From TrEMBL:
This is Uncharacterized protein LOC108042203.
Length: 163
């Protein structure tokens, strides 16, 4: 049973080989006309045909394959151009961000120069609090009569200034 299948497969492969030879003769091509590299490619093609169980050599398949490869090539070129444009956009965005970082670094340096250390700020604050407390204490010790009118004093000063 197994032997019968092998014999049928051998017979069909011989028939296929004869078919391909006939196809080559129709195109006026002899196997001796091919270089070793071309024969290696043909051998690989035959292996692919045998592997894929395709036995009909049709030029339309080759044209479809060619146009498919050509389409892939054009799509790859288009994708490459799009990616190049995207890369340029990203590079310009990086340059803008670098400029912004430089401006922020200059601002940070200027702010550090103007920054007052914590110890100095605490000393100033304690001095201001002490001055305020001193003024409040002086105000408490100052005895202002209840009938004192500041507006009349201001009017008298203004009249003296006018003279």
């Amino acid at each position: 049973m197994q032997n019968l299948k092998l014999q049928e497969e051998i017979k069909s492969l011989k028939g296929l080989g004869q078919h391909f030879k006939d196809q080559l003769k129709l195109a006026s091509i002899e196997l001796g006309d091919f270089s070793d590299e071309d024969l290696a490619l043909l051998d690989k093609c035959v292996q692919y045909y045998a592997f894929s169980q395709i036995y009909d050599s049709n030029l339309n398949f080759l044209r479809d394959y060619y146009y498919g490869k050509k389409r892939d090539c054009l799509e790859n070129k288009r994708t490459k151009v799009q990616q190049h444009l995207e890369l340029q956009r990203i590079k310009s965005a990086i340059e803008m961000a670098a400029k912004d970082v430089a401006v922020l670094e200059r601002f940070k340096a200027a702010a550090k120069e103007r920054l007052i250390p914590d110890t100095v700020a605490l000393q100033r604050r304690s001095h201001q609090v002490a001055t305020k407390q001193g003024l409040l204490d002086r105000q408490k010790t100052l005895k202002i009569p209840k009938d004192f009118n500041i507006e009349s004093v201001i009017e008298k000063v203004d009249s003296l200034e006018r003279r």
